User: Which sequence fits this backbone?
């Protein structure tokens, strides 16, 4: 497994690797992460391995997607363990840049859409998605992957990345990957380490509320108001940022349409912002 921190070196490496000795094109699967890897990340890597000849994983805690006062300085770092996980998972190249390898002074800027980038998570984290889209755009240009893998857990991020790829006519397939959970339902997240045992118990309310929504759908209750109201009751006493029913274009809908809906929830447990959702 190769570890590269210089973007131009990685670009060259990938260029050399994607053509074999007979000149045949090889596919590249790319998994961007912020490190502190867990089973959720590993499921993305596994899918990338299944579908591609070469797998590149990036580990980069992207400063531009953190707002002032957020957890940039305390974000969990497990560099050595992450490298081992990548090695065991059969990753070909780990891209481990420093902030100065990616950013310079007086940058060209990329802005998230004014509406879809500033609702839901974008309401409490205005500008967050500017940073996300900027780094993903840069990483996709460095790696030039055939396919890039993103978790459905970060549904708004996934939606905006797909929108960017479409609107900028980019040549990459974005592959959404299902959310991996602990056996009790908690969605895996690098930020779960911030939770105390009692907060972890409270955090289970997010997946429980989605479970409840699923149960209501099985009872033929499709009304978004009724479902979100019941979910909010289930989430008490957590500080709920939003509970919404959207279609796959990320527009609010009044009735769940099976095959075209996502129910999203965001709540704060202690000081930790937790996201979860189900795709229906
Ligand atoms: P992060 O390191 O948190 O930026 O996540 C890197 C990628 O892993 C993103 O595409 C996330 O959506 C995805 N991811 C995070 N948690 C999970 C999970 N529990 N299941 C599947 N994918 C996940």
Assistant:
């Amino acid at each position: 497994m190769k570890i590269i921190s210089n973007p131009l070196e990685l670009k060259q490496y990938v260029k050399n690797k994607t053509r074999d000795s007979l000149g045949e094109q090889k596919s590249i699967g790319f998994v961007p992460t912020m490190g502190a890897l867990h089973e959720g990340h590993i499921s993305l890597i596994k899918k990338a391995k299944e579908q591609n000849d070469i797998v590149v994983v990036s580990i980069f805690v992207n400063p531009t997607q953190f707002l002032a006062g957020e957890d940039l300085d305390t974000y969990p770092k497990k560099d050595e363990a992450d490298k081992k996980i990548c090695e065991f998972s059969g990753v070909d190249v780990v891209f481990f840049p420093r902030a100065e390898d990616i950013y310079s002074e007086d940058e060209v800027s990329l802005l998230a859409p004014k509406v879809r980038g500033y609702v839901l998570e974008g309401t409490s984290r205005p500008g967050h998605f500017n940073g996300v889209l900027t780094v993903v755009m840069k990483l996709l240009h460095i790696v030039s992957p055939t396919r890039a893998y993103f978790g459905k857990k970060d549904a708004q991020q996934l939606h905006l990345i797909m929108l960017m790829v479409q609107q900028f006519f980019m040549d990459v397939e974005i592959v959404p990957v299902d959310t991996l959970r602990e056996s009790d339902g908690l969605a895996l997240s690098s930020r779960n380490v911030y939770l105390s045992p009692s907060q972890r118990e409270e955090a289970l309310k997010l997946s429980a509320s989605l479970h409840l929504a699923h149960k209501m759908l099985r009872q033929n209750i499709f009304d978004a108001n009724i479902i979100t109201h019941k979910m909010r009751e289930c989430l008490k006493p957590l500080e709920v940022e939003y509970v919404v029913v959207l279609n796959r274009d990320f527009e609010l809908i009044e009735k769940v349409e099976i095959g075209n809906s996502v129910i999203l929830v965001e709540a704060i447990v202690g000081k930790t912002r937790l996201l979860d959702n189900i795709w229906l």
